[in-house]
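# step 3/5: fold
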Amino acid sequence: MVTVTRPTRESPPVARTSRSVARAVAWIAFGLIAPGLRSGEAPKGNSRFYRVEQRGTLWWLIAPDRTPFFSMGVNVVDPGASRKTYSNNNPAYAAFQYYPDFPSWKTTTLSRLRQWNFNTLGAWSSEDLWRSAMPFTVELDLGSSAGAPYCDLFSPVVEEKFYEVARRKIPPWKDSSDLIGYFSDNELGWWSDVIFLHFLQHPELRFTHRVLLGVLRQQYGNDFSRLSEDFETGEARNYADLERPSHLRLRPGNHGMNAVDRFLFEFAERYYSLAYQAIRRYDPDHLILGDRYPQWYPASVARACGKFVDVVSSNLGADWADGSNARFFLETLHRLTGKPVLVSEFYFCARENRSGNRNSGGKFMTVQTQRERAAAFRKGVLETASLPFVVGAHWFQYYDEPANGRADAEDYNMGLVDIHDRPYEELTAVAASMDTAAIHRQAGATTPRCSSHPGPAVVAVPVAPRHLEPGLIGWDRSRALVPTESSLAFADLYAGWDPGHLYLALHAIEYPDPYLYGSRVPAREWMTWTVSSPSWKDPVRVHLGPGNAVTMEGPQLAHWERVSSTRITILISVPAALLGKRSLGAGDAASLEANLTSHRPSATVSWRATLHLTK
């Protein structure tokens, strides 16, 4: 599940050998990341193992018998609490209460999964199931075991930690033909501002600190005055001063984010190269599946990742309560990395459940009933499996979380079964009815549904557009999507209408890096959505700030918005009169141009379309 890891201090690393020190220094001096590697290529040679392949327009996992395979998995398939750990004060799933022994539980559980059309044991499943003739994946915790991303990642000591974990976890499974591949980590949290400032403020993490200063010198031609144009430098007056704990803050309106992104790219490239080398030292054959992004990825990190993985993975909570997701998120991840995508975690929760889950905190998509939950599952799976570059989707998780919460207080109705081992009939019946391989195969027979697909947008009639809060429910978003001119989008634009208004809805994912500005992003750096049309003189500019902060410039349009976390949804309504019409009707057309910019100078999404109104 989504976690944000905060940095911790680490003792100064101690080099173990002069040879490892020399290697680390060479990487720093010359910028060489895993020299000689042609990473990301599918493992060669041994046909006994899974690999990836693009056949026509479709990406597939290819099973050892050469058949295309779409991985429909379940995470955390295990017996739950043991007799020793079970607590009556916090009821949890515990197989020992319902089965005489592990083999009995195993037989029933695997039979259920197959009956429900799941074909993969996802992350954190019981190792005792990995010899059960069902494909499985392994999550290694390579980086998190070493303290990534806040450890001294360029240190030879940290490098050895990666090898140590790989040496311990990989050899027992390296010859298994049921193993699909390895996740290097889960939700490391690639928060640009926190990582950048952490290594500025901790020069005792000397190898990575030296890389950071090298990036700044290269970015600004070793000219501190140029750096000072982009950053407030505090007491620092030269690069030597940055050798001490330092605090740089972005100057609004300048280009300091380019330097931050450049460092994050090199830092992420180091992580992925270490993970690649550690895995390949002990297993040259199985797939490397990425590190399961927490529903957010900086573009610089995704670009670094693509060189070192066979499949890129991301956890994915639904954007809309009906189970569907923004179109751009997985498409852009695929474009940035050039690799097929595995949805390593998806889920829906219901307030109606038999485990007593309160679904506290509002962190994860929650609907009212199990019937709605099953419908959202169907919608999410159908949408995901229909994407030609997606090779699998893994449900989180087999059973509900404890009634009073896990150790981290999560108490969500995540399960296929409740804590009493009773399946949720509506959800499992839907799962059993869906052939994901057939759905994926059908995607190859139709035009890929890409946000960059050319042609005029056809505007669908919205149902009660004031109901934005539940997620544009009632909109036919597949028809309402306005095509973008940007190949690396971080937002979708939807359009709808009724006789009185044209509605434009923007859905974006953005992390504004607030700590780079102190604690709050200044207004001039807010995300800005600009909309213009030949029908009105001045463009509309909507400025989207932290929390629910929204300001608008230009024609006084009615507007209504929702802003939360890294996901932002906002709706504006354009009166028919502003489009030169007394009222709108089918057959009318409206031309518009729109742009969305963020505080990253190079981050822009653009739309230009003539919207043809239709029933």
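# step 4/5: annotate
The mean pLDDT is 88.
# step 5/5: archive (pending)
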